[in-house]
Amino acid sequence: MGRGRSEDGRGLSRSWAGPRPRAPAPSELDRADAALLRKALEGAFLAWFRNGLLATGIGVIAFVQSDTGRDAAYGFFLLGGLCVSHGGVSYVLGLALLRRPLLLSAPSAAASAALPALLALLWAAALSLYVGRLEVEIVPEEPSRSPREVTGEGDVLDEHWDLLDERWDLLDERWDLLDERWDLLDECWDLLDEPQDVLDEHWDLLDERWDLLDECWDLLDECWDLLDECWDLLDEPQDVLD
User: Fold this and answer.
1) What is d(CA 123, CA 134) in angstroms, rounded to the nearest whole number?
2) Which residues neighbour 127 within 8 Å (Cβ) at sequence distance 6 or greater?
3) What is the predicted pLDDT for the residue at 173?
């Protein structure tokens, strides 16, 4: 009996409770508050993203100045990355915590959270392309040259190489003559090392050797001039090729 009464009591309580009430539809005031809150979140994100772009722009200007500016540019790039990432993360966290006050469904919140990720990806890609982290190279097509131009350049190069060979041969001759003069100079020093009485007899010979030494210096100057001409001839074929 008691059990039947308890069951009857539960049935009566359920019948008196009735169906669960539905959540009330959002009013115009709730929608306005949600719109203002969403604008506040977007404004905060855009402020951080704007600061990141400003720091990145300063880094780009410093990057093209000099090597010292290039080192400082990486600091500005890092600062811009921190601003962009902080703005994106705070925006996503705000959407997750305030999804109900914002009156957003789960798909709408996910789509809104994908926006800062896309902007951060575009920022990173643009920065990487600028500083050369991504190897993107566009090779222009070289204009075709006529066989006559190629043949003319080849003849000029052959003439320069022949003249260069002649200068090298002449330079070898000057070096051989300079070696002979140095041998004579060694004899002069040997004469200086002899005793005083023998040295008196060779002063005339020593004067001749000094004259030969002067000739050696003149030949050395000629060798340097020929060497300069050789370097000029080596530079001329490169100019012709350019």
Assistant:
1) 14
2) 56, 77, 80
3) 86
Is 112 within 8 Å of 81 (Cβ atoms)? Answer: no
| Angstrom distance (rounded) from CA 156 to CA 238 | 11
**Paired tokens of 112:** 């809104």
Alpha helices in 98-202 (DSSP H): 106-131, 147-193, 196-201
Which of 3, 79, 97, 95 is closest to 44 using CA atoms?
Answer: 95
Is 102 in contact with 37 (CB distance < 8 Å)?
yes
> Of 183, 179, 205, which Cα lies nearest the Cα of 194?
205
Closest CA to 98 of 118, 114, 113, 87: 113
pLDDT at 79: 92
Distance CA(127)–CA(67), nearest Å, equals: 18
Question: The tokens of 26 are what?
Answer: 């959002």
> What is the DSSP code (8-state) at residue 144?
P
Neighbouring residues of 233: CB distance < 8 A, sequence distance ≥ 6: 160, 163, 164, 167
Phi first, then psi, for residue 98 (nearest 5°) are: -115, 30
Ranges in the chain, pLDDT < 50:
1-18, 134-140, 150
What pLDDT shows up at residue 50? 93
